């Protein structure tokens, strides 16, 4: 999952061209060719039986993907709180631990983390039996939830920290001079402002999680990607992948547009 | 000490296989980087022209490759693009071309990297004041000279942190290519884990190796960052 | 060094797959080298050892077939669920990976005659309460199988009330039955027996074999080839007949099994 953000375009262009250039024509032509090719492929291989068989499993798979991402996002949000506080703490031990946590989960591939949890922890069944946690690690779904939650907690901790630190010191000082307690200042003054800053990064994080969650198909979870692979391996029909691509793009674009709307609404007091 | 034997080099240990995996991972990431950078830069240029068609095409590109799961992009390239190449060569009678998992990985990760990089470059372009362009034109520099001598050096400095992040993602995303059979760090560890039945040891080793790689990368990126800012530090 | 390895990897990727023949010309191509796709995670049929070398019954048979055809053979490993697409995409010329000749697969690719045929079986943990191999015995249980294999298809058909979990390779379901994540596994009897007889298989026991429904299992295991590749198919069929006759097949078989894997 990355920190790269989705940036909206508005500023004046330094290079200006008036008429459609050759580059534009070629580039657009390539897209047109791909679109026509895909359409021709799908029409040429049109198979109503395929739709009958797999329409429902695809929707179920989509449900699994969304359910998994939402649950791990919430778990990650809870976990990220102590980590973010640790990162901003004056205690070197807390700061060090939080840094190691964040660096570990952001510095290694999620797919390797999931393999380590699913297959690696399976090796220590007796230990997990003893501490009474095996029922949790027994299920592929909960292993996926566990890895995704820890992973997103590391990213969310950094988002939270950045957002809280973006609120100017003056806000704290102002609150103190009004005689408010630290907890109240944090809850009523700092957090609302930080959340406006954090909205877009949080939305990006959900998008990145939806994309990254496709990995769980490899540990026997039938999410959208898992169903797709299954459908492809039985039919060898490439349109199974095209459907999945369209479904993923639809969720991601819907989320992005919702974020834009939400941001506009939340910042309407800032528009002059 | 059994695990030391397993991780050792030679016919009984998996050390040499995993070491080769490191070479493959590093090669894939390093081979993808220049392609991703060049295409990302071109896309950023395309996005700020007034040529609507070009801009639209570039936006479609970013929407698709930023929105699709990397794993799906990889499968689409490995199965779909290969399929299309086959039909193409059959239709035209040209020699067959099929993409290996390494090249498929390069292409797919290149798509993803350039889509994100174009946004990084775009915002860097916007951070360069108009006065820089006006100043250059007052000095009589051509548009090409302005780009190479004035804009690009500043652009790289501004874009570097964003690109650094993308490099880290690229490095981690190479692990996904193991799923289509590239013998990178993760796949070699997976094979070792299967054969020796020590998944914790080998996946743990893989994770440590990735940590070392990202750690080295952040040191290198820090070094480049200081180098690009050496002019500012002198002040 | 890195630059060199990048170049090697890239050229290996391209050159290995540019045989300068379009697909129609497969039919009359002179085969001097044949690229063979296999999985490398299905002991004792095909697997990788600690030096990264391919071993197993499939591999030895493949080498014997290539000797009989007087061609050079190179091996390419490919994950199971991409096996057929990669053949169609010309990443290799033949699949020798214990692939059953099923009607579904025959719509996509061609097969030679079979080179072995063994029945499916079910294994369970030693302390399992599953008594038999009927539909009722396994109702509500979690059964592991390898993704997109005949065994996964058969598990779904034979045990409609069970939960079928599909794993990328056989090795992963073995890990999961050992740790108790699944109640039973279904695979080829030879594969299961080999595993149960090793230290790794100490957790489990063979519950019994099952009849191989020809609708699902087809007519045994064969060499997979691109459609219309009749010349190579003829060469492989002749080679299978040759090694069956001249004793090479039996020599190889005896290294691995103490019974006849060719089947009736």
Secondary-structure blueprint:
The complex is a heterotrimer of chains A (272), B (235) and C (264).
Chain A (H helix, E strand, L loop, with lengths): L21 H23 L3 H41 L3 H16 L2 H13 L2 H6 L3 H5 L1 H27 L2 H9 L4 H31 L11 H12 L3 H28 L6
Chain B lengths: L1 H6 L7 H33 L4 H16 L2 H23 L8 H27 L2 H9 L4 H31 L11 H12 L2 H30 L1 H5 L1
Chain C lengths: L1 H14 L17 E6 L2 E2 L3 E3 L5 E2 L1 H13 L2 E6 L5 H6 L5 E7 L2 H4 L3 E7 L3 E6 L16 E5 L3 H9 L4 E5 L2 H9 L5 E5 H9 L6 E6 L4 H4 L3 E5 L4 H16 L2 H9 L8
Helix pairs in contact in C: 2-9, 2-10
Walk me through what this model shows.
Chain A: It holds the Pfam family BPD_transp_1. Chain A: One of its GO terms (cellular component) is ATP-binding cassette (ABC) transporter complex. Chain A: Belongs to the binding-protein-dependent transport system permease family. HisMQ subfamily. The complex is a heterotrimer of chains A (272), B (235) and C (264). With 272 residues, chain A is mostly helical. Chain A has one domain: MetI-like (MetI-like fold). Helix content of chain A is 78%, strand content 0%. Chain A is built from eleven helices and no strands. The relative contact order of chain A is 0.13. Chain B has 235 residues and is mainly alpha-helical. Chain B has one domain: Orthogonal Bundle (MetI-like fold), CATH 1.10.3720.10. Helix content of chain B is 82%, strand content 0%. In chain B, helix 3 packs across helix 5, helix 6 runs antiparallel to helix 7 and helix 8 packs antiparallel against helix 9. The radius of gyration of chain B is 22 Å and the shape is flat. In chain C, the strands form three sheets. In chain C, strands 5-1-6-13-7 form a five-stranded mixed β-sheet. In chain C, strands 10-9-11-8-12 form a five-stranded mixed β-sheet, with helices on both faces. In chain C, helix 2 packs across helix 9 and helix 2 runs antiparallel to helix 10. In chain C, strand 2 and strand 3 form a beta hairpin. About 5% of the residues of chain C have low confidence. Chains in contact: A-B, A-C, B-C. At the A-B interface, helix 1, helix 3, helix 4, helix 9 and helix 10 of A face helix 2, helix 3, helix 4, helix 5 and helix 7 of B.
